[in-house]
Amino acid sequence: MDLQNVLSKLFANAGSVGIEGVFQFVFAPHLMFWSEIRERTTTQSGLHPRPDVTINVAEKDFLGIMGGVADVEELFASGRLKIGGNMGLATLLPQIIESARHGGQAEKVDMNKRYPTPPRLSERVSAAQPVQREVTRIARQALSIGDFRAHYLPEGIPLVISNALNDWPLFNMGREESLVHFAELQGITRHGDYVKKTFSTDRDFRSTSMAEFIASLDAPAQMGPNGEPPAYMGNNILPAQLMEQISYPPYFDRALFIAPRIWIGPKGTLTPLHRDDTDNLFAQVWGQKSFILAAPHHRPALGTWSTAPEGGLDGCDFNPDAPDYQRFPQARDVTFLRVTLEAGDLLFLPEGWFHQVESVSTSLSVNFWVNSGRGW
What we know:
This protein is an alpha+beta fold. The chain folds into 2 domains: 3-102, SCP2 sterol-binding domain (Nonspecific Lipid-transfer Protein, Chain A, 2-Layer Sandwich); 121-370, Jelly Rolls. It has 10 helices and 20 strands. The chain has helices at 3-11, 59-66, 72-77, 87-90, 93-102, 121-127, 145-151, 169-172, 175-182, 210-216, and strands at residues 21-28, 31-37, 41-45, 53-57, 81-85, 136-139, 159-162, 186-191, 204-209, 233-237, 261-265, 270-275, 279-286, 289-294, 304-306, 314-316, 337-341, 346-349, 354-359, 363-370. The chain is globular and about 65 Å long.
């Protein structure tokens, strides 16, 4: 296999996801290539003197990624793919691979630019519903799958299902026992002012041992010198080694689930107000997390912006904890719902619902995005 040709094709359309920089690939001590992505892409053998990102991966695993039989995030989480350098650039690698595998010349998207947010079907659906003033809480044993699909899913009504994780080994094991399962795994942590730079590739990302990060949570959480929240291991793929320690929630067909994600951090970690483009089942395994929710049709009131022209991942300039009604006068009419998830709770967060999330205590969560087809 001509690896140089494969890499040239991989980065040929990298500009479509806003990439510029030098990626160094090390497949073996004497098998190395680098690709420089500017207006044109150059790929050569050997070591580059100043790479932005360095990736160490076996040739077999890399070809598996390009062939669609291996996942780059999964290989990273399991420690079979190592990344050094600019982790902000590295976090875009899955998008580059997806673009290359499907071909075509996609429109260039600058991940650090804000685009106007297009409306969604879920906005019309929520606007037609009575105002919801609290999130219903139902025990798992009192909620049938049929009731969920009949009463909560069609109109996208948030719901907390308690005692939902009792059959999860990860929920039932102690912290010390769980660390055994996290050995040799790695994740990406966020540092610095990651709240102010929501969804930007300019955030300070770092490659971190999962076991070491979890062990560090026993120490008091350290805020940054300018009041930044503590480090957060957010939105990492759940490694394959942990899949046997959880269970997929039964409320959707298994084929609709996207690979689950894991979130780990101390008290004070924060994800500001935003919304996703799929339904979400959010499982609280350790500790507590607080959610602030707003219905989809409040988009115009919240200073909403998107990370891509077609929308999808939408951020907000309005902060419900420090409301600026002079700048956002329509936000006075928004009904914000506040709910705290306890360990063992499962939150159904429908597509289009805005949410701000904060760790009330040391926390580990797993979420499942679901391509239910209900949105858009």
